Structure formats: structure tokens, C-alpha cells
Amino acid sequence: MFEQTFKNIKTFSTQISIGDGFMTIGNLKVKASTFFFQDYSILRSIKLPINYSIVDILRLSDLYTPEEIEFNKMDILIKSTIGEIDKDINVSYGILKKYGVTTDEIRKIVLGEIFNKQPKFN
Predict the structure, then answer these.
(1) Domain range enclosing 68
(2) What is the pTM for the complete model shown?
(3) For range 77-96, the mean pLDDT
(4) Which of 49, 86, 96, 110 has the smallest C-beta neighbourhood within 10 Å, fewest atoms?
């Protein structure tokens, strides 16, 4: 019933209210004790230590869903941290290239230390 009522609304904006034992859509009031939303999901808060490190930030993608990371506005921090790793790898390459080390080798070492595998994000 709810879905059909919602689909039949033709106005630009409609007020929907959910209260204790009822729900209203516009001027229609429905008695209900429980509501289920098909695409409802719980997005957890992200927990970081007080003195978090770059590694803590980068490991968030292994602990939380992309939606949770975006909801908590950590995606920008993760992307900027990845940018810092790229800069550090380039600096390291500038120092170590005379020994025949490549940026790919440095990247593999750094990411291996952080993730023990390749990261899930780019």
C-alpha cells in the first residue's frame, strides 16, 4: 500500500512524517507499528585512534564499506593520503634509482607493508 500511495503522488514536494505507531504522507495518515525500507542499511561511524597514522587511514578500506567511508567523509582524506604515498615513492625513487630500483618495486614494498596486498581503492 505504501509503495502504491507513494507512486501516485503528483506534487513537487510532499511531507512524510513517521511517528509512534503512525505514518503520514501528505494528508494521508496510516496506523503502523513497524516500517521497513527496502534499501535501508546502517552506516557505522568510523573509529580511528586519537593519534592515528597514515597506515590507519589507508586500512579503513579494509574495515568499512565504500558507503560508510563516503558517509563519514573519509574518502577525501584517503585519496589525499594516497597522493602523499605517491609523492613519497617518487622521492624515494629519486634517491634509489642509481641502485637500479624502480618505482614499481618501491610501491610494492610500501603497499605490501601497509596492506600485505594491493589496496582495494584507487
Answers:
(1) 54-115
(2) 0.54
(3) 94
(4) 49
